[in-house]
Design a protein that fits this description.
With about 260 residues, this protein is α/β, with parallel strands linked by helices. Helix content is about 40%, strand content about 15%. The protein has ten helices and eight strands. The strands form two sheets. A six-stranded mixed β-sheet has the order 1-2-4-3-5-6, with helices on both faces. A two-stranded parallel ribbon has the order 7-8. The two termini are about 35 Å apart.
């Protein structure tokens, strides 16, 4: 099992294919397996790397360091260790936050960023909701995750897919909750006009977790940014409608790489 020791933790990653590099970042509490429907397609003509960021999946679950800055530092180390040549970073949900922060702090390392359903500033506009979520997670983690996650998906999504996501989040444990707490104070909007890496936002039309308006606002603030809206999709379009998502991602990649 390929792994990399970084700072105080060990990261599991998978590295397939050859060509221009793509680095896929999953959402809160899941794993690189969230991209199972993308890897076979894109590994035909890209070098595709997926990573379980710290605290998730097959990576170690350290008690400290699970912050945005900590994850971004891990990504810098991973890119260096694998000698990835300026990958396009595709991030789902909070993975989109990590991708954006990497581009803001180390624009030399990324050829482009494609946030998918990224939360951006949204949790900071409702700090009370975030506080209540954290309270519910402490009191009844299983019940809270089981009732919350189905709302991430578009109507009609296979129950097995939802159950898989719930299981992954529960397996990741409590140390990922630091991200939910930090989200109350995170707002990238002031920094987006200075972003020097090409960005293309992808968002589900029916995303009930992060409204489409968030992606529209961020795209308007980010110089030269594009936006693709996937009709009928929720917060997890890469899993809900993989064929349509893959086509949209290829189009976004063409736009981003041309700009880069």
């Amino acid at each position: 099992m390929p792994s990399l020791h970084v700072d105080d933790t060990t990261l599991h990653y998978e590295d397939q294919g050859s060509g221009p590099a793509l680095l896929f970042l999953h959402g809160w509490g899941t794993s690189g397996r969230a991209w199972d429907a993308q890897v076979p397609d894109f590994a035909r003509d890209h070098r595709v790397v997926t990573v379980d960021w710290r605290g998730c999946g097959r990576s170690a679950h350290p008690r400290r360091g699970n912050t945005i800055a900590g994850v971004v530092a891990d990504l810098v180390a991973l890119i260096d260790a694998l000698r990835l040549d300026r990958p396009v970073v595709v991030g789902s949900s909070i993975g989109g936050t990590f991708a954006t922060e990497l581009a803001l702090h180390r624009p030399d390392l990324a050829a482009g960023v494609i946030p998918v359903g990224a939360p951006a500033y949204w949790p900071s506009t409702r700090p009370q909701d975030q506080a209540e979520l954290l309270t519910r997670l402490r009191r009844d983690r299983t019940g809270t995750v089981t009732s919350w996650v189905p709302g991430w998906y578009a109507p009609g999504t296979a129950p097995a897919l939802v159950e898989r996501t719930v299981r992954q989040i529960l397996d990741s444990g409590v140390h990922i909750d630091e991200h939910q707490a930090a989200a109350r104070g995170y707002d990238p909007r002031p920094a987006l006009p200075g972003l020097r890496v090409p960005v293309h936002y992808v968002h589900g039309e029916l995303d009930a977790a992060i409204p489409l308006e968030v992606a529209r606002t961020c795209a308007a603030l980010t110089p030269g940014a594009g936006l693709t809206v996937l009709a009928g999709a929720g917060h997890m379009p890469h899993q809900e409608f993989p064929d349509r998502f893959n086509a949209a991602l290829r189009s976004a990649l063409a736009t981003v790489t041309a700009a880069a």
